[in-house]
Amino acid sequence: MNAGWFIAAGILAASDWSTVYFEKYRWRWLTKTGAILCLITAYTLSGGWQNSVWFGMGLVFSLAGDTFLLLPPRYFLAGLAAFLMAQMAYIIAFHQPPAPLGINHLLSAGVLLIIALLAFRRLSSALASENRTNRLRWAILFYILAISTMVYSALTTLWNPAWQLPAAWLAVAGAISFYFSDWMLADQRFIRSTRSGRLIIMVAYHIAQFLLVFAFLMRK
Fold this sequence. Notes:
Layout: H1 3-21, H2 28-45, H3 48-51, H4 53-70, H5 76-94, H6 103-129, H7 134-156, H8 165-190, H9 195-218
Helix pairs in contact: 1-2, 1-9, 2-4, 2-9, 4-5, 5-7, 6-7, 6-8, 7-8, 8-9
């Protein structure tokens, strides 16, 4: 692994947490995008694209999503679309090769589907009270289902012979951290926004991306 770029990514990520907490948003064009750019560079120089092109594409889409979310609120749907593409890329990456189906798959898929529907029900009520458009509501539903599928896909690595257990557990931890970050983002944007909540979003998001990168690099 290319330690220097990972250290740079960590420094920029921690700096981004500081800019969020102290509301120095102009610096986020450097800290937020820089952290993921350094992760992409580290993944590239560590031979990650040979392990999984799809995961690398997911990182690139994540960078696009980060960029759109730094723009005015009218670009929120574009950011959501970029992260949707990132989740789809991660899903494909986790299933190459696919794990043999078993009862564990059905149970985890069922639990995540219930969580996804409950999450959408809560958000849908908040969106309705603010007279948000149906297009936004459907986009959020589709994204919730996509990221829930991503978490399910990460869980399947635990039962996939192609994945060593340490890498699989990192993948699961990263996916769950991503899920938590996006849930907090929706809560902060549509229900109640707090400084600590905004900080938690970014800490969980960066931890998620680091863990996922490590998982795919360890996989080889």
